[in-house]
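Action item from last week, closing it out:
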Amino acid sequence: MSVDQVTSNTTKDMEKTLTHLQKEFRLTRTGRAAPALVENVKVNAYGTEIPLKQTATISVPEARQLLLKPFDLGLLKEIEKAILASDLGVTPQNDGKVIRLSFPALSEENRKKLAQSVKAKGEEAKVSIRNARRDGIKELEGLQNKKVISEDELKKLKEKVQDLLKTYEKKLDDEVAKKSQEIMSI
């Protein structure tokens, strides 16, 4: 393995962690309705489990409401069952053509709990990128032991990996702050 491969792999691992955190945050309820909250709910359609986003259009007519319009009206009851079985905590309103999901406003206590959860997820992500740094440094030390790179080069590369860590920690902190602000401002 070359030095470029090690730094590239370390960067990829840190980027994957950031992407995963952003995906987790999209699925975190904030009091506002967001299609991401329901799009992966599994619906029993045509004898198989498929994501809701493949069975219906999902729109946001109001800040705290989702509107689900099935592609096939025969799936209306199955979509309703899937939402009731999910952990969303909302009751679907079925009018025979569409399903409306009304999300209640979050209480101050629930917002604080969600903000703590967001912070905890951010800390888990930091542990993950620190592990990526550790693995990258181990690989670089292995290259130095094999005499592929010198001790001076190793020191410079360790600093480069550390700078990469600081960059991604800042990005993670920014994501956590943004999501916490979103939760607390609603």
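Closing note: Residues 108-145 form the longest helix (38 residues).
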